[in-house]
Amino acid sequence: MSLHKTTNFFLLIVLLAAFSACKKVIKVDLNSSLARYVVQGNVTDVAGTYTVTITKTINFDQDNIFPAVSGAMVVITDATAGVTDTLAETLPGNYTTHVLVGTPGHTYKLYVNAANNVFTATSTMPPLVTLDSLYTKPSPFGGSHPQLVPVYTDPALVGVHYHYYHFMEYKNDTASDNVIVRNDALINGRVVNQPIGGDQLSPGDSVAVYLECIDSSVYQYYSTLQQTNNQNSATPANPLTNLTGGALGYFSAHTSSVKSLIVRP
Amino acid sequence: MNNPIKIVIALMVLLLPGALKAQTKFSISGTIKDKKTGEALIGATVKVADKPAIGTATNEYGFYSLTLPAGTYKLLVEYVGYKQQELQVSPDKKSGFDVALVPEETQLNAVTISSKVNMVTSAQMGMEKLDIKEINAVPVIFGERDVLKTIQLLPGVQSVSDGNSGFYVRGGAADQNLILLDDAVVYNPSHLLGFFSTFNSDAIKDVTLYKGTAPAQFGGRLSSVLDVKMNDGNDQSYHVSGGIGLIASKLEVEGPIQKDEGSFLVTARRTYADVFLKLSHDTTLKKSSLYFYDLNAKLNYKLGKKDRIYLSGYFGQDDLGLGGLFGLNYGNATGTLRWNHIFNDKLFSNTSLIYSDYDYNIGINTGGISANIQSIIRDWNLKEELEYFANPSNSIRFGFSSVYHTIEPGNITGTGITNSTQPDNHSLENAVYITDSWKASSRLNVDYGIRVSAFSVMGGANLYDLNPDGTVRDTIHAGNGQIEQTYVVPEPRVSASYTLNDVSSLKLGYARNAQYMHLISNSTTTNPTDKWVGSDNNIKPEIADQGTLGYFHSFKNDDYELSAETYFKYMQHQIDYRDGANVFDNTPLDSKLLYGDGRSYGLELYFKKKVGKFTGWISYTLSRSEIQMLGVNNNNWYASRQDHTHDFSVVGIYKLNKKWTVSSDFVFYTGGAATFPSGKYEVNGQTVFYYTSRDGYRMPNYNRLDLSFTKQLKPHKKYTSELVYSLYNAYGRENPYIINFRQDPNDASKTQAVQYSLFRWVPSISYNFKF
Q1: What is the reported pLDDT for A158?
Q2: What domain count does chain B have?
Q3: Do A22 and B756 touch (CB under 8 A)?
Q4: Fewer beta carbons below 10 Å: N end or C end of chain A?
Q5: B97 with B236, same domain?
Q6: Tens-place pLDDT, residues A176-189
Q7: Which domain holds residue A82?
């Protein structure tokens, strides 16, 4: 449960709405920054190829065209099975696997060498938890936008072996900008049917929700990414990554389970 | 801990010989109060008519003691806004030294705003006293008179954000202010997300702010002490007063329990901001609740000539709710039981038992889960203070204070979830102190003393041995009642004034303060759910050393006052969050923190007109405050959020005629340091902002003008009333509250900065009455 987010969200709506806040776009003179590497890599338990993307940061006032980094050497090793896969650059900045098969319980190591900058990361794929169902229900606040409820059963484990979840929500094939993560610290071993706060839904929308079981370092990445995006801390900062070597981004080995529906009137 | 006590005893012994030389002298003592209300007058002066240099002033309870060479004297008893009274004394007169002063007619055209302490001769530095009349005249947001917002107009004091009652003093953080209500610590001094202070100004008698240079009887916070005293209640006759405003209403009842012997006072206040939410078109807001209330009560009773008992309490509660799905309640409760005892003409004792509590409760009810998060901080404090008026040149205060802190760090319980509870934290904060006000010569006054504080971490809760990256290496657990660690900090304090001539003086001061309780916050403004934590094996006591130098000048028979003060402050063991720390999960808080030092220096100029139809002040502060955190910004010094280079305020109060008073204030300050992104990148198809430094940017400058018009309505026999019209932010400046960065909603290829501002042209009207 992300209580902190709830509190801040609540405080913010009260502040901004109750005191009829004024909002305007302003020009802020922001410094330029040295370009940094951004690495994003996923290995899942779904058969097929897996992709690592390498790009660079740009200045705030530039257009959203993020330079692809070509010619890098990218290797993913399944440390559990002892399989090494050197990825091929299939599109500028996009590197794809050949032989790797994502398997729960296996540990994967990423190695990237881009112009002699070396970045590495390790991620272990947790056991699979499947989505039991997905449904919508009316919002308790009223209005015509329903809430989305993915249902799953958290495996009961004694001790501090947390499960970490990441949800990807697609509305009409577009990924939601909301970062949704959960752990089972307070819901260990229960059937979970808490709504997720993604995009606003309307009748007719086609919605798909992916439930991903992620490891603790990727959970830390997503939950700090959520803080970065929310911008409600006094000192926003870059998300905590599991990559070493100074790159932004993450490397995640995770399971994936999907359900979809069309929102009824 | 032995050594500091020895030092204190040695100091006391050193001071005593002065007292023993007084054979040919005699002492008198008494109390000074307001004749109409019976309220004890704080800081009223008693001096010899033909030798005004010989004199004294009343303490916080209206008590004074004066030692004179044998002889007959005419004494003058004076207090700003009251008629002077004479008092004949001689060695054979044994009683009759209690004085009741008569207030001057308030219908006079002149308004006198006080400075009850003669700032030229007093050794005390960095001190501001505000009169309630002054506070009531300054325009404020929503027309709700507010102590905390008025002190923000003083030099060296800055607002946390627009309309907020949180404040920074001389570059210190908001949790470094010791806020006391009748000696009880108020842990959260604000209501409704910071827009109202917990202090109902109707119940308040006296407000004193010490900017890090407080005398040794105060301790526990680095940057300031705000000492708020409640009214005692009228012991002559019954009165009811109150006010009706757009956003809040209040009522006060006071009267004698037995005339001249004791009195009571009860005030209550409630806001009804949520009524406006019901008018909103937004369905979420319509189902919300948003209000606070608070109660102040005080009783006092004389038990014979030498004893007096006081009982005072405060209770306040905020209630924010969102249609049964989400609720946030929080509030303070304080209680003070005090016993004043006069041992003899020279020795005054004050014993207090003080309770203070702050708690918050978050309730969530969604998706079959009903959860409750509760956190409490609770103090019991036993305090003893003795004031010994040793001789005409020395008056000594000494005593101790012992506080037992209990913190419930935030237990999560409910249905549909696994409960998560942590053991309570207990700690003991003790202090002994002694301080002497010494009139060294006719020109030199010195206040010097020492406070020795000790903080003991008690067993029961887990302590953590941490690796340099903050991860837990080992968990240490000691049993309940065991002392795990004790910190001792000697805190010397000295300040001296040297009078250059009748109207000007130079002052010099040094003070050390230690702080053992810390508010861990990562929000831009005061947040009710920020956590208080005590020092432990990782969180060291914060320590500040401050040196000050000042020049004071009064003009035209003390009608005008000018002061210039400079300060330099060095703060050790400051605390901040690590990047990405999550405040609300129940993992060890210690592992989420960073430590460092702070430094702050500045010049404060203050010019005040105290008497006449037109009164007011101008204050200007030029300052810098920086921090160095291990692990932030490559360990370089950087400007802190409290760093506002220029801070300028003007307050003017003009009494037009018997009916109308106009007042206005203007504020300008340099925007504080803020963290903005310096770049962006893309992950999972989403644009993410890239940050290169903490607090590396500045918010835009802030400025605002407020106006207020008070109309005195026709007085009836026993009934007086007034109407107050006020306009906050009169020229509608859009001062930024937050600046956010986002994707341009109209152009997928661009990003933009968006400024949110809260208050423009906030008009209000309120009606106040008294009978």
Answers
A1: 66
A2: 2
A3: yes
A4: C
A5: no
A6: 888 999 988 888 88
A7: 37-124
